[in-house]
Known about the structure:
Blueprint lengths: L10 H11 L7 H4 L6 H13 L5 H15 L8 H7 L7 H22 L1 H5 L7 H4 L2
Amino acid sequence: MHENTTLAGDADxxxxxxxxxxxxxxxxxxxxxxxPLAIGKKLAFRLRAxxxxxxxxxxxxxLAVYVLKYLGRGNGYITEEQITKNLKGAHGIPAAGYAxxxxxxxxxxxxxxxxxxxxxRGPRTAPGRAWLEG
Length: 134
């Protein structure tokens, strides 16, 4: 996977971007924070690559991992309650915030599996090989 990844070429990535679009924009420091390494700035760096058609697999991977780490269930950064309160068009409906977190987490995990797992496994190991040995 050395070619650029585009929204048109990956429906799951396009869906994750649509979900992120339901949150406040990057200028909303009340939601994302304003520190130099704020969550919104980390997302923005990877999203710019995706939105301009210059995303590499690592950009998609980082974006998905950031969603899992900072917006997924049980994280300590941006809680489900904050997402519920700030979700565009949902008007504070708890079920909408819950559904957003579940959908974003599921979609991000699909992308992590697609773009990260081959790197985690390493080039020397075939899928499931360890279970055949012994």
